[in-house]
Write a structure and sequence with these properties.
The chain contains 8 helices and 12 strands. It has 229 residues and is α/β, with parallel strands linked by helices. Bound molecules: calcium ion.
Protein backbone atom coordinates (compact mmCIF):
# COMPACT_ATOMS: atom_id res chain seq x y z
CA UNK A 1 0.00 0.00 0.00
CA UNK A 2 1.60 3.23 -1.06
CA UNK A 3 1.62 6.34 1.04
CA UNK A 4 2.14 4.57 4.34
CA UNK A 5 4.20 6.43 6.92
CA UNK A 6 7.46 4.97 8.05
CA UNK A 7 9.53 6.46 10.84
CA UNK A 8 13.25 5.88 11.14
CA UNK A 9 15.09 6.75 14.33
CA UNK A 10 18.78 6.66 13.55
CA UNK A 11 21.68 9.00 14.31
CA UNK A 12 23.83 8.05 11.31
CA UNK A 13 22.91 10.49 8.57
CA UNK A 14 24.03 8.35 5.65
CA UNK A 15 21.92 5.42 6.80
CA UNK A 16 18.89 7.68 7.14
CA UNK A 17 19.48 9.02 3.61
CA UNK A 18 19.87 5.53 2.20
CA UNK A 19 16.75 4.16 3.88
CA UNK A 20 14.71 7.26 3.08
CA UNK A 21 15.67 7.22 -0.58
CA UNK A 22 14.90 3.54 -1.05
CA UNK A 23 11.60 3.55 0.80
CA UNK A 24 10.43 6.70 -0.92
CA UNK A 25 11.12 5.02 -4.26
CA UNK A 26 8.55 2.44 -3.17
CA UNK A 27 5.96 5.08 -2.39
CA UNK A 28 6.34 5.26 1.37
CA UNK A 29 6.38 8.55 3.26
CA UNK A 30 9.46 8.57 5.43
CA UNK A 31 10.02 10.60 8.61
CA UNK A 32 13.34 10.63 10.40
CA UNK A 33 14.63 11.52 13.84
CA UNK A 34 18.27 11.43 14.89
CA UNK A 35 17.77 11.27 18.65
CA UNK A 36 15.97 8.83 20.88
CA UNK A 37 13.82 11.40 22.68
CA UNK A 38 12.65 13.27 19.58
CA UNK A 39 12.13 9.96 17.79
CA UNK A 40 9.90 8.66 20.56
CA UNK A 41 7.86 11.84 20.41
CA UNK A 42 7.47 11.44 16.64
CA UNK A 43 6.45 7.80 16.96
CA UNK A 44 3.60 8.82 19.27
CA UNK A 45 2.58 11.87 17.24
CA UNK A 46 2.89 10.67 13.63
CA UNK A 47 1.42 7.19 14.16
CA UNK A 48 3.65 5.51 11.57
CA UNK A 49 2.73 2.16 10.02
CA UNK A 50 6.20 0.86 10.86
CA UNK A 51 9.25 1.96 12.82
CA UNK A 52 12.88 1.37 11.88
CA UNK A 53 14.81 1.73 15.09
CA UNK A 54 18.54 1.96 15.66
CA UNK A 55 19.79 0.34 18.86
CA UNK A 56 22.44 2.89 19.85
CA UNK A 57 20.98 6.40 19.94
CA UNK A 58 21.66 9.64 21.76
CA UNK A 59 19.43 10.45 24.79
CA UNK A 60 17.23 7.34 24.80
CA UNK A 61 18.43 3.98 23.45
CA UNK A 62 16.48 1.89 20.97
CA UNK A 63 15.89 -0.73 23.65
CA UNK A 64 14.24 1.85 25.92
CA UNK A 65 12.14 3.19 23.06
CA UNK A 66 10.98 -0.31 22.21
CA UNK A 67 9.98 -0.94 25.82
CA UNK A 68 8.09 2.33 26.10
CA UNK A 69 6.22 1.81 22.81
CA UNK A 70 5.22 -1.73 23.76
CA UNK A 71 3.76 -0.51 27.06
CA UNK A 72 1.64 2.16 25.41
CA UNK A 73 -1.73 0.78 24.20
CA UNK A 74 -1.58 3.11 21.19
CA UNK A 75 1.76 1.81 19.96
CA UNK A 76 1.99 -1.69 21.38
CA UNK A 77 1.16 -3.24 18.00
CA UNK A 78 3.42 -0.93 15.96
CA UNK A 79 5.73 -3.10 13.83
CA UNK A 80 9.35 -2.41 14.78
CA UNK A 81 12.46 -3.34 12.82
CA UNK A 82 15.63 -3.01 14.89
CA UNK A 83 18.88 -1.96 13.33
CA UNK A 84 21.81 -3.51 15.13
CA UNK A 85 25.44 -2.70 14.59
CA UNK A 86 27.08 -6.05 15.10
CA UNK A 87 24.21 -8.44 15.16
CA UNK A 88 25.42 -10.16 18.26
CA UNK A 89 23.22 -12.95 19.47
CA UNK A 90 22.57 -10.97 22.67
CA UNK A 91 21.31 -7.89 20.83
CA UNK A 92 19.10 -10.00 18.64
CA UNK A 93 17.52 -11.97 21.48
CA UNK A 94 17.08 -8.83 23.55
CA UNK A 95 15.47 -6.97 20.66
CA UNK A 96 13.02 -9.76 19.92
CA UNK A 97 12.27 -10.26 23.61
CA UNK A 98 11.37 -6.61 23.91
CA UNK A 99 8.92 -7.00 21.11
CA UNK A 100 10.76 -5.98 17.95
CA UNK A 101 9.24 -7.75 14.94
CA UNK A 102 12.47 -8.14 13.07
CA UNK A 103 16.04 -6.93 13.12
CA UNK A 104 18.57 -6.07 10.47
CA UNK A 105 22.31 -6.14 10.90
CA UNK A 106 24.41 -3.25 9.63
CA UNK A 107 25.70 -3.01 6.99
CA UNK A 108 22.59 -4.12 5.12
CA UNK A 109 21.47 -3.92 1.53
CA UNK A 110 18.68 -1.42 0.88
CA UNK A 111 16.91 -4.02 -1.19
CA UNK A 112 16.82 -6.41 1.76
CA UNK A 113 15.49 -3.71 4.04
CA UNK A 114 12.72 -2.78 1.62
CA UNK A 115 11.76 -6.45 1.25
CA UNK A 116 11.61 -6.94 5.03
CA UNK A 117 9.61 -3.78 5.57
CA UNK A 118 7.09 -4.85 2.96
CA UNK A 119 6.74 -8.35 4.33
CA UNK A 120 6.24 -7.11 7.91
CA UNK A 121 3.62 -4.63 6.80
CA UNK A 122 1.86 -7.36 4.83
CA UNK A 123 1.92 -9.63 7.87
CA UNK A 124 0.62 -6.93 10.18
CA UNK A 125 -2.28 -6.22 7.84
CA UNK A 126 -3.11 -9.89 7.46
CA UNK A 127 -3.78 -10.72 11.06
CA UNK A 128 -6.49 -8.55 12.45
CA UNK A 129 -6.75 -10.74 15.52
CA UNK A 130 -10.04 -11.12 17.30
CA UNK A 131 -10.13 -8.96 20.41
CA UNK A 132 -11.96 -11.72 22.19
CA UNK A 133 -11.18 -15.43 21.88
CA UNK A 134 -13.76 -17.90 23.14
CA UNK A 135 -13.90 -21.61 23.78
CA UNK A 136 -16.59 -23.13 26.01
CA UNK A 137 -16.65 -21.16 29.23
CA UNK A 138 -13.23 -19.62 28.50
CA UNK A 139 -12.86 -16.08 27.31
CA UNK A 140 -9.54 -14.48 26.52
CA UNK A 141 -9.74 -10.71 26.22
CA UNK A 142 -6.76 -9.64 24.13
CA UNK A 143 -7.02 -5.91 24.67
CA UNK A 144 -7.53 -6.15 28.44
CA UNK A 145 -5.04 -8.99 28.85
CA UNK A 146 -7.60 -10.94 30.86
CA UNK A 147 -8.74 -14.52 31.13
CA UNK A 148 -12.28 -15.25 32.20
CA UNK A 149 -13.55 -18.67 33.24
CA UNK A 150 -17.35 -18.80 33.68
CA UNK A 151 -17.28 -14.99 33.58
CA UNK A 152 -14.86 -14.90 36.51
CA UNK A 153 -11.43 -13.38 36.17
CA UNK A 154 -8.55 -15.84 36.50
CA UNK A 155 -5.09 -14.65 37.57
CA UNK A 156 -2.68 -15.44 34.76
CA UNK A 157 0.95 -14.51 34.13
CA UNK A 158 2.08 -12.67 31.00
CA UNK A 159 3.70 -15.82 29.60
CA UNK A 160 0.65 -17.96 30.34
CA UNK A 161 -1.50 -15.37 28.61
CA UNK A 162 0.67 -15.37 25.50
CA UNK A 163 0.83 -19.15 25.51
CA UNK A 164 -2.96 -19.46 25.67
CA UNK A 165 -3.34 -16.79 23.02
CA UNK A 166 -1.00 -18.67 20.67
CA UNK A 167 -2.85 -21.93 21.30
CA UNK A 168 -6.36 -20.52 20.94
CA UNK A 169 -5.34 -18.58 17.84
CA UNK A 170 -3.94 -21.62 16.06
CA UNK A 171 -7.41 -22.97 15.23
CA UNK A 172 -6.79 -26.61 16.09
CA UNK A 173 -3.38 -26.85 14.45
CA UNK A 174 -0.68 -28.61 16.45
CA UNK A 175 2.00 -26.24 17.71
CA UNK A 176 5.38 -27.75 18.40
CA UNK A 177 7.29 -26.79 21.53
CA UNK A 178 9.81 -25.00 19.32
CA UNK A 179 7.13 -22.91 17.67
CA UNK A 180 5.63 -22.04 21.06
CA UNK A 181 9.07 -21.07 22.36
CA UNK A 182 9.52 -18.78 19.43
CA UNK A 183 6.04 -17.27 19.62
CA UNK A 184 5.89 -16.79 23.36
CA UNK A 185 9.50 -16.43 24.42
CA UNK A 186 10.90 -15.05 21.20
CA UNK A 187 13.73 -17.56 20.92
CA UNK A 188 14.81 -19.33 17.79
CA UNK A 189 16.24 -22.83 17.55
CA UNK A 190 19.80 -21.70 18.06
CA UNK A 191 19.23 -20.67 21.67
CA UNK A 192 19.40 -23.57 24.02
CA UNK A 193 16.52 -22.82 26.30
CA UNK A 194 14.86 -26.06 27.31
CA UNK A 195 11.61 -26.95 25.62
CA UNK A 196 10.66 -28.20 29.10
CA UNK A 197 9.96 -24.56 29.89
CA UNK A 198 6.96 -24.84 27.60
CA UNK A 199 5.73 -28.02 29.33
CA UNK A 200 6.06 -26.34 32.70
CA UNK A 201 4.00 -23.36 31.68
CA UNK A 202 1.40 -25.57 30.00
CA UNK A 203 1.09 -27.45 33.30
CA UNK A 204 0.48 -24.24 35.22
CA UNK A 205 -1.95 -23.01 32.62
CA UNK A 206 -3.98 -26.23 32.71
CA UNK A 207 -4.42 -25.89 36.48
CA UNK A 208 -5.94 -22.47 35.95
CA UNK A 209 -8.33 -23.59 33.22
CA UNK A 210 -10.29 -25.88 35.54
CA UNK A 211 -12.84 -28.01 33.68
CA UNK A 212 -11.69 -26.53 30.39
CA UNK A 213 -8.12 -27.78 30.86
CA UNK A 214 -8.77 -30.75 28.59
CA UNK A 215 -8.89 -28.40 25.64
CA UNK A 216 -5.11 -28.26 25.71
CA UNK A 217 -4.23 -31.60 24.20
CA UNK A 218 -0.72 -33.05 24.44
CA UNK A 219 0.54 -34.48 21.17
CA UNK A 220 3.21 -36.85 22.38
CA UNK A 221 6.70 -36.04 21.19
CA UNK A 222 5.47 -33.07 19.18
CA UNK A 223 3.71 -30.35 21.11
CA UNK A 224 0.22 -29.13 21.88
CA UNK A 225 -3.10 -28.48 20.27
CA UNK A 226 -6.03 -26.44 21.47
CA UNK A 227 -9.55 -27.72 20.87
CA UNK A 228 -11.68 -24.65 20.30
CA UNK A 229 -14.97 -26.50 20.03
CA1 LIG B 1 23.52 4.67 16.27
Amino acid sequence: MADEKILIIEDEKNIVELVKFNLEQEGFRVFAASRGDTGLEMALREKPALLILDLMLPEITGIEICKILRQNPKTKALPIVMLTAKGTEADKVLGLELGADDYITKPFSPRELVARVKSILRRSREKPEAELMRAGSLELDISKHELLLNNKKVGISAKEFQLLRALMGSHGRVLTREVLLEKVWGYDNSTNIATRTVDMHIGQLRKKLGKESGRIVTIKGVGYRFDND
